[in-house]
């Protein structure tokens, strides 16, 4: 049973001992204190446990409850999945362990949901910081995103990652709405992709809002997880992993069969485009021909898009014009 007014904060942690203090400090500094902090230590081999437990007394004195859970490493998705078994708050958020909150972050979002019972999810803007300069933000996470003020109809945009706010710490959800679409408190325990699984079922069902304030601080790290995908093979593995998660998420959403098939194909086409782009970027001609041919056969690429994606914005390649002419000729344009 949800605890009225309580905000649950699930934080997945893996070897975050050097940076986790910033997030916990920012939770201590919140102007709204009725918080339960649920930390999931995902098999850390550094001092993550010691850092978390060192805050126990400070958090308790501030009226913030702390729950520390250790598990063998399962990845971000697996850690969030574990955290879902423990939250009891009226509202729920799940920031990344290496970012931090603005002082009014929880208060403003919680009060919005309090006063707007017809909304079940609220998003905010965020500052972008470089890891080496946490004093001066580089900009805003929304940038020029035109969709940020929309209150519905973003389900497909989130699937396609089209002009959206995907940062987990920018979101707060009403727990009752989350449990309505996910009564088992369970997401697919993958290494990544937890945000698709947390957000898509809500975006399909619920009305959501945007607060035009930077209530979160997103830190850009040189050695982040996604930046480690530095070869074609690693990128393809990442694509296939996220595609599997999207399929699994779509399977768990109640919708007409034909609509689900339509979304399956949307996901397939999305990752064919990405793989084609990757093959082009890495100058892998055979792979490029294959993905290009599959896109053409599906009828989801045309000459206008070819010009836009592969010629106007052409990367540095060996004989790029010859490469493109041959690719286009080989698939029948």
Protein described:
This protein is α/β, with parallel strands linked by helices and 333 residues long. It has two domains: 219 residues, Spore Coat Polysaccharide Biosynthesis Protein SpsA, Chain A (Alpha-Beta Complex), CATH 3.90.550; 104 residues, no CATH class. The chain contains 13 helices and nine strands. Strands 1, 2, 3, 4, 5, 6, 7, 8 and 9 form a nine-stranded mixed beta sheet that branches. The C terminus is likely disordered.
What are its keywords?
2 domains, 19% strand, 333 residues, Spore Coat Polysaccharide Biosynthesis Protein SpsA, Chain A, transferase, alpha/beta, disordered C terminus
Rounded mean pLDDT score: 88
What is the CATH superfamily label of the largest domain? Spore Coat Polysaccharide Biosynthesis Protein SpsA, Chain A
Largest sheet: 9 strands, mixed
How does the helix and strand content classify structurally?
A: alpha/beta
Approximate shape: globular
SSE order: EHEHHEHEEHEEHEHHEHHHHH
Strand content: 15-25%
What is the highest CATH level, the class of the largest domain? Alpha Beta
Number of helices: 13
Low-pLDDT parts are: 316-333
- Number of DSSP strands? 9
CATH topology (level 3) name of the largest domain: Spore Coat Polysaccharide Biosynthesis Protein SpsA, Chain A
CATH architecture classification name of the largest domain: Alpha-Beta Complex
Helix amount: 40-55%
Distance between the termini: 60 Å
Number of domains: 2
Q: What Rg is obtained from the alpha carbons, in whole angstroms?
A: 21 Å
């Amino acid at each position: 049973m949800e605890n009225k007014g309580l905000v649950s904060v699930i934080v997945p942690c893996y070897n975050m001992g050097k940076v986790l203090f910033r997030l916990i400090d920012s939770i201590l500094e919140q102007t709204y204190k009725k918080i339960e902090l649920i930390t999931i230590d995902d098999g850390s081999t550094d001092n993550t446990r010691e850092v978390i437990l060192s805050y126990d007394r400070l958090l308790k004195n501030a009226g913030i409850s702390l729950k520390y859970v250790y598990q063998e490493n399962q990845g971000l998705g697996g850690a969030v999945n574990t955290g879902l078994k423990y939250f009891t708050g009226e509202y729920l958020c799940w920031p990344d362990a290496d970012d931090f909150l603005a002082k009014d972050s929880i208060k403003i979002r919680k009060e919005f949901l309090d006063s707007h019972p017809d909304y079940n999810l609220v998003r905010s803007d965020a500052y972008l910081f470089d890891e080496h300069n946490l004093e001066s933000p580089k900009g805003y996470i929304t940038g020029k995103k035109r969709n940020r003020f929309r209150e519905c109809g973003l389900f497909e945009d989130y699937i396609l990652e089209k002009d959206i706010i995907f940062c987990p710490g920018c979101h707060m959800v009403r727990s009752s709405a989350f449990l309505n679409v996910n009564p088992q408190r369970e997401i697919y325990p993958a290494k990544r992709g937890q945000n698709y699984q947390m957000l898509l079922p809500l975006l399909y069902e619920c009305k959501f809002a945007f607060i035009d304030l930077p209530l979160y601080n997103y830190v850009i790290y040189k050695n982040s997880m996604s930046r480690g995908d530095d070869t074609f093979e690693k990128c393809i593995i990442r694509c296939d992993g996220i595609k599997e998660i999207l399929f699994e998420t779509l399977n768990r959403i109640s919708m007409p069969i034909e609509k689900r098939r339509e979304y399956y194909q949307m996901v397939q086409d999305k990752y064919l485009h990405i793989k084609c782009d990757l093959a082009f970027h890495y100058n892998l001609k055979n792979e490029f021909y294959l993905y290009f041919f599959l896109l053409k056969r599906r009828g989801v690429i045309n000459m206008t898009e070819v010009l836009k994606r592969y010629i106007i914005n052409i990367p540095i390649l060996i004989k790029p014009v010859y490469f493109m002419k041959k690719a286009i000729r080989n698939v029948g344009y």
